[in-house]
Amino acid sequence: MELQQYSSKIQQLGRIPQDIMPKIKSEVYPILQTWPQQFYKTLCPKTFNDVFISITPSLAQYKKAYGDNGDIAVRAIMTVIIEDLIKSFNLGQTMDSEQVADVINDIIDQYYYLNLEDFRLCFNNAKNGRYDKGIFRLDASVILSWLNKYTSDRVNAADESSYNAHLSSKCESSLPDFDKYYQKVKR
């Protein structure tokens, strides 16, 4: 895929058109490297299942993919994510660059296993008041508490999904094979 031919359209939209969004994980990195803000804004997970089937990399995978520049790459995408979050709130005071760097360090240390769609879903939930009502400040403790609540909900959703899959497979394996039964009766 020749990405540069889409450059003006992407700049105009502020998002990546759905027809060129990656379909496999290896296609994510070139787009993410070229248009990180637009890529992040294009992500639109609605449920945990969307996150579970996502091809976006976790922070750890992202860091590994960029080798020696992995730390810089992860901090850069996390800066995009946190700045997008900060812009979403109309607060008297905002986080300064040192506070942003500190919260990014905490996120990378504690939530390296989350993928980019996890962050999008978590922060969309926070913007919609799912974790707190009436935000009067935005700082590391607020952001980290949202991520803590999100990961707890995520674990519960994964547990439920796994249990439902188990029940489904158990039901399927306990159903009689009517073709075999029919063949026996037919004889």
Annotation keywords:
mainly alpha, 66% helix, 187 residues, globular, single chain
Describe this structure in words.
The protein is mostly helical. It contains 10 helices and no strands. The longest helix is centred in the last third of the chain and has 35 residues, at 140-174. The radius of gyration is 21 Å and the shape is globular. The N and C termini lie far apart (58 Å). The mean pLDDT is 86.
Uncertain residue segments: none
Cα-based radius of gyration, to the nearest Å = 21 Å
Order of helices and strands: HHHHHHHHHH
- Beta strands, count: 0
Q: Globular, elongated, flat, extended or rod-shaped: what is the shape?
A: globular
Classify the helix fraction into a percent range: 55-70%
Provide a count of the helices: 10
Strand content: under 5%
